[in-house]
C-alpha cells in the first residue's frame, strides 16, 4: 500500500561531487571499492525507525510539529501505514538495514498480553514486506524507559513485578528480532541508573542487571539466535548516574558478571560526547577489548548539554571514527545506524530524505579518508616511532622484572631520561591532509 507521503521523490542515486542536486549522493557510491570491499558492505547503513517515523517533532517546551499520514500512532492501522512509509523510504534511499524499538512499531497497549499480540502482528506484516524488499533488520530493542512503569528502571527496578515485565518484554523483542532475521539485539538501558542514593541499593541493582543480561544471553542460545547481543552506553540520559555510563564502565560491568565473551557494545557519537569523551575514544576503548559491535551515528550540538541527535556533517570527526572501526577489522554483524532526527521545523518528506542523503555522504567521505590514512600508514608509523624503544630486549625484560632490579639498573646505567615531543600538531595536520 502506498502512503503518498513520499510521492514525487525519485530514488536517490550517486551523481558525483559536482552535482548540485540536494537529493543525490555526491560521495556515497554503494558499489565503490574501498580497501577491497564495497562501500555499502563497509558502512552497513540503517534507518532508525523511532526518529524517522515515530518521533512527532516535540521538545521539552512544545509538542508535535510533524503531520504524517500514520498519525495518531494509536492503532494497528496506523502502525501498518507507518511500516508502508518506512519501506517506501528504504527503497528511495537504497537502505540495506533498519533498526527499531517495540513501541516504534506498534502502539503501547498497557498490558503485556496485548503488547505481545500487536508486536507479533506488526512484525509479521514487516516480515511480509521484507519478502519483496532488499532492506534487512540490523537490530531490534525494547523501549523500557518511556512508559511510567519504567520510571525507576527496568532490570534495576526495586519492584520485582517490573523486573518480570521487563524480562517478558525483552523476550518478545528478541523473538521478533530473530523472526525478522536481525543481525544484533541491543539492550538500551534508558533508565538503568539512579537519581539519589537515599533510596538506592546500588549493589543489588547492579547484580539484578547482571543477572538480567545473563538471562538474555541464555535465551539467545536457547532459540538459536545467531546475532550479537549488544549493550549501549548511556551517560546522563536521563538519570544523573547511569550504570552504563561509557564504554569502559560497560566493559568493567560485563567482566564482573562473566559476560565479556557474550556481549559487545553499540556505541553512539552523541553519548560519547555526553560522557566527556570523543567518539574515537569510545571506539578505541571497545576495540582494544574486542568488544566493538555496532555504532549509532549522529552528532550533538556543542553549545547544548543534551543529546540532540542531529545527522552527522563533521567529516573529520567521522573519519577518525571509521579509522578505528577499520583498524578493528570493520563491521561483521554491526553497522552504522542513523540514530538521528530532523529538526522540529523540518516538516517535509524531502527533509527526511535529504537528511539521510547528507548523513550517508558524510559517512562515505569519512570512510574513504579513514581508508586512505590506513593505506598511507602515517599514523601507524608515528605510533611505532613513539614506542620503538619498548621493542628492545632491555625494555621487554623490564616488564618481567621487579622494582628492586629496575631501580638497580637505573643506578648502574645512570638513566636520566629527557622528555620527548608527542608531535600532536604534526599528526593533526597529517589527518587534515585526508579530510
TrEMBL record:
Homotetramer. This is Xylose isomerase. It comes from Palleronia sediminis. NCBIfam families: PRK05474.1, xylose_isom_A. PROSITE patterns: XYLOSE_ISOMERASE. Binds 2 magnesium ions per subunit. Its EC number is 5.3.1.5. Keywords: Carbohydrate metabolism, Cytoplasm, Isomerase, Magnesium, Metal-binding, Xylose metabolism. The keyword Isomerase applies. It is found in: Cytoplasm. Mg(2+) 2 binds at residues 268, 271, 307, 309. GO terms for biological process: D-xylose metabolic process. The active site is at 101, 104. Mg(2+) 1 binds at residues 232, 268, 296, 339. One of its GO terms (cellular component) is cytoplasm. Belongs to the xylose isomerase family. One of its GO terms (molecular function) is xylose isomerase activity. Its cofactor is Mg(2+). It comes from the Bacteria. It catalyses: alpha-D-xylose = alpha-D-xylulofuranose.
